[in-house]
Every structure is written in C-alpha cells, then in structure tokens.
Structure to design on (1033 residues):
C-alpha cells in the first residue's frame, strides 16, 4: 500500500474508476491531517497538511507504479494524453562513459553491482522527496529490505571515475558517513548504528562477514558502504545536476530491475553501464490475444491497446503478427500471457463479453466431508451445539492442561509463532471445546457442545511428515458429570453410523486409564476391535486448568474409520 | 378462581344496574373487602366478554382514628369545656384527663376558659362563656356522613394538619354488562384432557382462552455454527454448478506445493517469516515428484515454456520447508499435477477449508481463516469465461458487487506447463474467504465473536438458517 500526492484534476469517483480500469484499486482518499488524527487524535493533527492524499493499492510486481512520476506517466499514456515513452541510453556529451570496476573480493559478501548516471536533472523539493521515497519503497519491496539489492545515489560532480566496488575487512574501512560530522571505521559504524531505529534492521546482512562491501572513486573517496550507509561527501542536494546511481546485490537480475526503475522513473534518456537490460522485443499474434481474452479485435487495434499500456506495439504486416517492445520499466512482463493481461486491461475487463465455459463435469463430494456434513446435522438434532475452534493452540493446551506430556503427543511444532496461541497444531479437539465453555460461563446449564474438525498429527509415511485426522468431540458440562449423557451420544452416533453394539463386529467400550480423565471414569471406544477414541468424566484438575468449576464429561473419536 | 358466591352476587348487582356499578360500592353492599371484589372482576374478565370493567381511581377524605374518636365524643377542647363545672376545676385535676393537655391549650386559644393562678389550693380553671359550638366535631361528622363537599378545602386541610383527616386514593372498577353477559357462570377448563376426549365431555365444556401475546417455550435443541451453515451453502452452490470437492484435509504443506509449484519466487514477501507459519518439527518435506521438481526449478531459475523465468538461484532447501498452508491453492496445485499425469479430461474443482497466515490480528483478521476456492481446467478457456463463471457464482450468492470480495485469475503457463498439462489447456480460478460473507450475512463486526473459543454461544443459538440468495 503506497501513498501518493496527486493533483486533483478528476472528481473522486472518476479517479476511482480510472484506477479500476487501469487494474489498480483506490484504497482511500484522505489527508495527512486525517491520518494523524485517526492514529494519534485530533489535537496532534491540528498543524498537519490537509492536501488530499490518494492511497492506491499497486500490484506487488509493478515497481514502475511505485512513485508518482511513474504512475502519472502510466495513467497519461493509458488515457492517450501522452505517447508511450521509448527509453534510450545516451553517451555523455563530452568525455568517456563512466566505469565501475568490480573486484573479486566482493564475491565473499555481495558479488554484484550495476550503475548508471542521470544527467541534467533538475530537482525541486517535491521531485527530490519523490526520488528518495522511491528508493525507500524499492528497498522495502523488491530489494527485500536491502538484503537482495541496495541502492546508493550520489552527486556525480563531487567525485570522479572510474569507480571501484571492492570489499575490505571492517577495520580497514574509514570514512565520514552520511549526516555525521566525523570519520568512523566500519567496525565503529556497526556499533553506532545498533541503536539507530532505521539502520539497525540492515546490519545483520553483512555483520558476520569477514569483509564489508565498499565503493571508492578514483581519488579514494568513499561513495557508500552498501547495504548500510552512503558517504557524506557525495550526498545529493536540490542543487545536484548529475546523479550517479549504484546498485549492489546478491541477485543480479533484481539489481538490474532496480537500477532500471531508478533511472526510468526520472528521465527518459540516461547513461548506464554494465549489462543493463534495455528493451526486449517480442513477437506474438493477435489471434493469441483474442483467443485468450475472449475478444475479436483487429491486429492494429490490439497493437494500439498494448501501446496504451506503455508496451510500444505495431502490426508487422506479416499475417496477424504484432511486435511488442517491453520497456525497462516493465520487468514484470516475462511471458506472452503478461502482454495478454495488459491487452485485456486496456480493452476493459467490463467490456469483455461474459461467456459460459462448456466444460461438462459431474460433481462429487469429498467422502470425508460428506460424512462430516451429514453427521453434523444429526448431532445438532441430538441436542448438541456446534463449536468452531482454532486449529492452532499453545503447547500447554494440548499438554499440561490435559495432564499429558507434550513430548508424548504427536504434535507438529511451529518455529516462528508470534504468540503462545500458535505454538502447535492441535492434536485433540477437547481443549477448544473447554475454552469455548470457559468463555461462555454465563450461559444457562447444561452446556452441550460438539465439533467435527481436523487435528494434525506427525506421520512419517506422508511426504510432509504429518497428516490431518478428522475427529468428533463432544462435551457435557453441568452440575452432575452426565457420563450417561455423553455415553448416550456415543450410542446415538454409532446408530447413525450403522455400527451395532457388540464386541468384535460392532462397537463396545472398555475401562481405560487416561490422565485427562477422573480415575475409574474413562473408557476406550472400540469399533470392529480397533480403538477409535475415548470418553469419560474429566479429571477435576483438567477442568480447573481450563478455569471451569463444574463436572464435565467428554467424548472424542476419530471418524475416518467410518468412511 | 375467585369466591363463586361473590362472583354470582356481583353479577346479580350488575344485572340490576343499568349503567353499571362501582366495585367499592359493591364491596360495601356485599360486606366484603374490596380486594375480594377485584378478584371476582379479574376472574370474570378472563372468561371473555361477560362483563366489561374500566379501571377508575377516586380520591376521598377519611377520618383518622383520632378523627373518628372526636366525631363520636367531641373535640378535646369541647370535652375540656364540658368537664369544667361552674365553680371551676383545679388545673392539676384537668391534666389528669386523657384529653386534658391538648384540649386545655385549644380551649384557651378559643377563649372558652381562663386560669386563675392565684386561687387558693393551686391554679384553677373557669369557664369564660356559657356555651360553645364544637365546630371540629360537626365538620368531622359531616365528613363521616360523606357530605364533605360542604366543607371548604382550607377547612379540610386544617383538619388534615391536626391528623384527624387523611386523603385516600381508591382504585376501583366501573363494571358494566359485557356483550356475552350472563348471571350463570360455568367453570372454564384450562386444557383439553385425554379423559374429556374419551368421554366426549369437551363438547359441553368452556375453555379458558389462551394468551397469544406471550412467547412460547423454547425447544430443547442443538444448533449448527453460523460459519458452518454458510459453508454448507457454498458447498451446495459449487455442487449445483457441477464442481467436485478437493481433498483439502492437509494443513501441513511443503513450500514446494504452496509456493514453488505456483511459480511464486523464493524471495517473495509472502514466504517471509512474518507472513507464513513455518514448522520446526517436522521441519522439512522429503518426497517430491523428481522430474516435475526439476522442471519447476528450471522455470524459476532459467525460464522456459515461453517464459523469461525469474533468473535466480532456486534452492531445494527453500522448497522443502514445511509450513501451515497459506492458501488451499496448494491443494489445487497437487490436483492439477495429478490431473496432468493422466489423459487430460476437463475438470471443475472446489474446496472450502482452513488456511493460515502469521499476520497481525485485529477485528477482521485472524491467524487462520477458511478459503473458498473454485478451479476450472479445460481447453481454450478465456477471460470472458472467467468473467462469465464468476458472474454465475456470485449471482447464486445474491451478491451484486463482487469485485471486492475475492480474487480471481488465470493460472500462469509457468505453473501449468511444468506439471505436464497440454499446451492449449487454460485453468481459471477464484477465491474468497468464508468469514467475510458470513460476517456480512449475520451482521457480526468482530471476527472473534464468530470464530474460535471466544464465540458468543447466544449468537450461535439465535442465528437463523442461511439462505445466501435472500
């Protein structure tokens, strides 16, 4: 989600519609004042700007729409107010092109770098802010918080090429970093920035490496120590005319994409070096587009539609062939289907005739879900109310609270839970039902609840090492334990499942020991001689651990054997 | 039932009076407490239109206990006056009388008597006038007779101040004949009984009318959860449209099937620790279809099948990482791969099941929710087909503005071709959450009231059946 300033030339509804047509979503129309007052209260917002802000959702891979310049250009071309730009690489008017020399030492830390020069730029405060903002957005998105790519921008007139991208031990690097007054070694910088709310997030990328990446000019001036900080010497200002942009990376493809974005958003003509991706030409047929979209347009019309999406296209005259130029701004176009999608956007999704596929199929239910659906209906008819609990819970819920050791459950464990509620996947439905009762203690007794849902168990025979198991669990909570009620529900469930009461070829229950249940009040359920679950009166300690005060009986069985 | 004697007597009185009777008067005529008459009125009202009774309230003055004594024996001051003989009375003697103290000061202020303090043998009281008129007694007698209207308000208030009089509000009924007036009352039955049915006596009996304003007795019942009721309806819609249900009972999925097979690059933000739950045990998946895996690796890292690819170093270690699936599309991928391993036949698939996101929680977001997904695979499907099928689906939902509810699209060739699906086959798919339409349908603002143990069971008990299109 990104914020843009956008001059109010369209009514809000028109702009909303334009965004929709262009494949974007206008999320919110607001102002800085409104945002601050929403988050921090009216008093804080009093001095803030009330210039209207449009908050627009941009597809994740459309880096070209991340800044105002790119978005405005895209929309203007789309509305035929501007010709689709053709980006060109130009040589400097005088002198040799700049060079960036990459030394082999960088292989140990950050092996790739690409660079470009933007000449004769005129910065205004707004343009300058937008330039910095674009860098930051790219850093957060495609650059994966600078881990894949880091961007450095410099005032070319303060330095002289050729430039050297190398890597050195941190103790050997010393320079005055951006916005500081004295020189620091790289080692000192890393400890200095530990307390910097912004930069501390990037330190881990190189912290443990034996050498740190560093870029010098021909006089030994430090441009930057990527991906952490630039040198102070080369910083760009509103007066900067020529900008040197370097992207260092662990992923060369992304470095090229990022550099393309940085240069194309601010200038149609630029100089660049290394093997920057320029324009890719691609041939496809109008029949392909017509066929995939479900329209019937002429080759010329389709070429026009694509051109409106900044994909300069022309009919070659050979059959229905179209030549499409994919500009460096559109790194997201990697297949003909992406071109097809742009043709559909330009044609207007709402203008496409809706058709019904002739696909003839016969529907089938998944047998386990069919059984579940039917059983749920009849269990509700038996007077029990359906609960719906989370599949994730704490270790305590399925372990200690039930009087079990977590190591003895077959639970799968989550490595990155944000809170204890998401430590494991449940191995039993019982804790969820008991927690539901605890949250509804004000309701009149008895409480009769059931749930038919999946638990997750480790299972070495599966490709992922775990499987779901569908369970039926019910609890009865009242002033008396009501074992006979829960037992009666089991009998009813067996009746519904056409299993008769008999040892051997029917079902029966048999006394069992289980630490979750009150001693002597637990039985195991056997169906055709195999154990499918347990029922009984819960142990008072278990009941208390779920913050309950009344006796409670419970039943939990596996329903997959009944398929 | 009220005293039948009183009921009958009341009815006889009502019969004789043309314009009705007052219940208070009835009580005094019958010599019973007013409440007994009120009881009789109520029981007659319950029988229907035998009588009609309008509640009215009236105020009247009533003598207090002291006032009644005065009406009988005269005011204290008058009694003081009459107890004093011509030769006077010793003051201390007078004070011994019950009315002495109060009567003395009143009689003094009325100037009926005087005290001779210097009289030998102590202070002595003498009459100062020959005769008196005891106005207090006269007024009280008037009030007692019910002729209080002859007195002025000021005089009544004066008596009230002396606690001789109090004002009483009486609620009474004005009783007149009803449309089915009768002096003979048959006892009404409350309910039809098996005996009455057996002996036919119900034919002669009158039955007490029911109160149709009251609520009935709630049935003992179980209830289905509203989200599951909506799930049932969505299943129904898909089945009506000929979609086959996918087996989605595998919450644990490998990153390979959840991301890589869908052509989602390994550095994609969705694969971040902040968005996805990874497993520590079992941490890795081990079995993959090897040839397919190689094709997936190639299309990511080098391209192919008409694609540039993402051009990065694709790692099996990343694909092996087990997660809690972030969408049911992982199952769709498995199903489409399976489909590609046999001779292609067109399919329509659906699923509704849980998915998991390691997100920040708020009133509308939980770490797990239900995803509804529809998939159609056939030769030559177009965007027009996608729009058409979505239109049919959302029409069945009764939703006009559906663009904001979910996502839809055509699966990329980089996903389908490595699976081995034929070149001309397109796969269209769409998805939405089950929770959002349910919250809209049942007017629930906080998702925790709907899903999870903090559910409001009363809401579950009270929730209506789910008809999505109405």
């Amino acid at each position: 989600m990104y914020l843009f300033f956008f001059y109010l030339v369209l009514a809000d509804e028109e702009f909303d519609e334009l965004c929709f047509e262009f494949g974007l979503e206008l999320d919110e129309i607001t102002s800085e004042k409104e945002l601050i007052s929403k988050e921090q209260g009216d008093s804080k917002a009093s001095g803030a700007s009330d210039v209207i802000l449009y908050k627009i959702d941009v597809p994740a891979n459309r880096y070209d729409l991340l800044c105002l310049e790119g978005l405005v250009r895209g929309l203007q071309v789309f509305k035929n107010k501007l010709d689709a730009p053709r980006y060109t690489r130009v040589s400097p008017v005088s002198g040799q092109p700049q060079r960036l020399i990459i030394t082999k030492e960088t292989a140990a830390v950050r092996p790739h770098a690409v660079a470009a020069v933007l000449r004769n730029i005129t910065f205004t405060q707004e343009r300058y802010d937008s330039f910095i903002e674009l860098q930051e957005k790219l850093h957060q998105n495609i650059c994966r918080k600078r881990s894949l790519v880091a961007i450095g921008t410099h005032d070319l007139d303060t330095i002289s090429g050729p430039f050297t991208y190398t890597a050195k031990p941190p103790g050997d690097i010393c320079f005055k970093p951006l916005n500081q007054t004295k020189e620091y070694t790289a080692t000192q910088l890393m400890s200095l920035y530990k307390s910097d709310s912004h930069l501390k997030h990037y330190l881990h990328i190189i912290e443990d490496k034996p050498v740190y990446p560093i870029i010098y000019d021909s006089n030994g001036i430090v441009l930057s120590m990527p991906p952490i900080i630039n040198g102070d010497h080369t910083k760009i200002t509103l007066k900067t005319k020529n900008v040197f942009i370097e992207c260092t990376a662990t992923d060369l493809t992304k470095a090229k994409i990022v550099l393309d974005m940085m240069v194309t958003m601010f200038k149609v003509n630029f100089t660049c070096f290394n093997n920057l991706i320029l324009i890719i030409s691609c041939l496809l047929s109008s029949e392909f587009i017509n066929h995939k979209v479900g329209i019937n347009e002429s080759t010329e019309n389709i070429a026009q539609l694509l051109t409106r999406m900044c994909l300069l296209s022309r009919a070659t005259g050979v059959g229905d062939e179209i030549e499409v130029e994919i500009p460096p701004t559109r790194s997201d176009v990697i297949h003909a289907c992406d071109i097809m999608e742009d043709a559909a956007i330009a044609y207007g999704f709402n203008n496409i005739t809706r058709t019904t596929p002739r696909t003839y199929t016969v529907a089938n239910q998944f047998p386990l879900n069919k059984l579940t659906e039917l059983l749920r209906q009849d269990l509700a008819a038996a007077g029990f109310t359906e609960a719906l609990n989370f599949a994730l819970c704490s270790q305590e819920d399925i372990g200690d609270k039930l009087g079990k050791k977590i190591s003895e459950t077959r639970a799968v464990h989550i490595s990155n839970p944000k809170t204890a509620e998401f430590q494991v996947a449940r191995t039993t439905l019982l804790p969820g039902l008991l927690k539901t009762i605890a949250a509804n203690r004000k309701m009149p007794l008895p409480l009769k609840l059931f749930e038919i849902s999946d638990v997750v168990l480790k299972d070495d025979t599966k490709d992922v090492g775990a499987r779901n198991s569908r369970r039926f669990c019910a609890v009865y909570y009242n002033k008396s334990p009501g074992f006979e009620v829960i037992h009666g529900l089991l009998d009813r469930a067996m009746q519904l499942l056409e299993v008769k009461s008999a040892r051997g070829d029917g079902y029966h229950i048999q006394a069992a020991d289980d630490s979750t249940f009150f001693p002597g009040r637990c039985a195991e359920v056997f169906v055709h001689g195999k154990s499918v679950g347990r029922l009984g009166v819960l142990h008072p300690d278990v009941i208390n651990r779920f913050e309950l005060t009344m006796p409670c009986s419970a039943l939990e069985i596996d329903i997959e054997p009944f398929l | 039932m009220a005293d039948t004697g009183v009921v009958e007597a009341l009815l006889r009185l009502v019969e004789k009076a043309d314009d009705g009777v007052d219940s208070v008067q009835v009580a005094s005529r019958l010599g019973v407490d007013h409440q007994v008459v009120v009881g009789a009125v109520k029981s007659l009202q319950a029988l229907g239109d035998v009588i009609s009774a309008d509640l009215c309230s009236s105020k009247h003055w009533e003598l207090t206990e002291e006032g009644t004594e005065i009406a009988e024996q005269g005011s204290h001051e008058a009694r003081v006056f009459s107890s004093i003989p011509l030769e006077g009375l010793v003051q201390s003697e007078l004070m011994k009388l019950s009315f002495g103290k109060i009567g003395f000061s009143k009689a003094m202020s009325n100037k009926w008597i005087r005290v001779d303090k210097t009289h030998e043998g102590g202070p002595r009281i003498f009459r100062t006038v020959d005769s008196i008129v005891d106005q207090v007694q006269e007024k009280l007698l008037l009030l007692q007779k019910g002729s209080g209207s002859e007195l002025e308000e000021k005089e009544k208030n004066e008596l009230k101040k002396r606690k001789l009089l109090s004002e009483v509000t009486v609620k009474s009924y004005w009783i007149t004949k009803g449309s089915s007036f009768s002096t003979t009352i048959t006892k009404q039955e409350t309910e039809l009984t098996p005996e009455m049915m057996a002996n036919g006596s119900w034919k002669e009996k009158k039955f007490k009318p029911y109160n149709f304003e009251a609520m009935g007795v709630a049935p003992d019942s179980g209830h289905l959860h509203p989200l599951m009721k909506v799930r049932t309806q969505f299943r129904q819609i898909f089945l009506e449209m000929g979609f086959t249900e996918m087996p989605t009972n595998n919450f644990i999925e490998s990153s390979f099937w959840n991301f890589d097979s869908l052509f989602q690059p390994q550095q994609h933000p969705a694969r971040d620790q902040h968005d996805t739950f990874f497993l520590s045990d079992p941490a890795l998946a081990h079995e993959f279809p090897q040839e397919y895996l190689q094709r997936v690796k190639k299309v990511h890292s080098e391209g192919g099948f008409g694609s540039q690819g993402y051009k990065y170093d694709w790692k099996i270690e990343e694909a092996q990482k087990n997660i809690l699936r972030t969408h049911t599309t992982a199952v769709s991928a498995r199903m489409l791969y399976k489909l590609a391993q046999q001779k292609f036949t067109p399919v329509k698939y659906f699923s509704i099941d849980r998915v998991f996101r390691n997100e920040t929680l708020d009133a509308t977001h939980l770490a797990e929710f239900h995803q509804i997904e529809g998939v159609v695979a056939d030769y030559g499907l177009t965007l027009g087909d996608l729009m058409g099928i979505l239109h049919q689906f959302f029409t069945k939902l009764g939703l006009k503005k559906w663009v904001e509810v979910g996502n839809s699209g055509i699966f990329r060739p980089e996903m389908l071709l490595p699976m081995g699906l034929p070149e001309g086959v397109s796969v269209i798919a769409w998805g939405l959450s089950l929770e959002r339409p349910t919250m809209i349908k049942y007017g629930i603002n906080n998702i925790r009231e709907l899903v999870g143990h903090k559910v409001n069971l009363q809401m579950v008990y009270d929730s209506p059946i789910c008809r999505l299109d109405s």
Remarks:
- The mean pLDDT of chain B is 87.
- The domain at 1-57+169-216 of chain B is CATH 3.30.1370.240 (Ribosomal Protein S8; Chain: A, domain 1).
